[in-house]
Each structure stands twice: as C-alpha cells, then as structure tokens.
C-alpha cells in the first residue's frame, strides 16, 4: 500500500496522470482531472497522509485545456505525451498539496 501511495505521488509529480475513464460528462477537463487526482489520493486512505483538496483543485485549475485533455486520455496509469512545461511545473507544485507524516506512514 505504501508503494502505491508513492507511485501515485510520483505520477502526480511527473504529469498529473491520475485521471480515468470515469467521465461523468460534467465540469471542465480541469475539474475532471482534479476529481480523479483526489479520488486516487484518497483511495490510499493511509494514516499520516493528508490531502488539501482545495490546493489540488487550485493547482489543477491552472492546467490548459489541452494539457488536461492529454492527462484524461492517458488514464490513471498512463504517461501523457506532449504535455507543456507548465503542466510539469503544476505536477511538481501538487506535491505541496499532500502532507505526509513519514513516521506515521512507516509505522503503518
């Protein structure tokens, strides 16, 4: 379970590729990416990990439509190709949205 959390965070850092095929048809591409990212991070339900959902939504809201669409097309385990450098920077900034108490995670 720990490795899945770190893999999820790595994906976020590399391109925010935590989105999926569950498109409810509502909201902007950025909203859909944010929903999928939050779902993926909450799926971990690990002790010592807190997600600032407002921060996630604010960061992902900065994505261009084309970057958000590329991420949605790649899916949760995909590696979207052709993302802008802005999207990669946003991915790195996403790490600030997740607070990890390392000792609590290691104890689990």
Structure description:
The structure is a single chain. Helix content is 58%, strand content 6%. The protein is mainly α. The protein has one domain (29-106). The chain has a two-stranded antiparallel sheet with strand order 1-2. Helix 1 (2-15) packs antiparallel against helix 5, helix 2 (29-43) packs antiparallel against helix 3 (53-60) and helix 2 crosses helix 4. The radius of gyration is 13 Å and the shape is elongated. It starts with a helix and ends with a helix.
The H-and-E topology, N to C, reads as HHEHHHEH
Order of adjacent strands in the largest pleated sheet: 1-2
Spans of at least 5 consecutive residues whose pLDDT stays below 50 are 1-7, 13-24
Distance between the termini: 9 Å
Strand content: 5-15%
Number of helices: 6
Rg over CA atoms, rounded to whole Å, is 13 Å
Average pLDDT over all residues: 76
The coarse silhouette is elongated
Signal peptide: 1-17
Keywords: Signal
Topology diagram in text:
Elements: H1 2-15, H2 29-43, E1 49-51, H3 53-60, H4 65-74, H5 85-94, E2 98-100, H6 102-107
Antiparallel strand pairs: 1-2
Short description:
Keywords: Signal. The protein contains 6 helices and 2 strands.
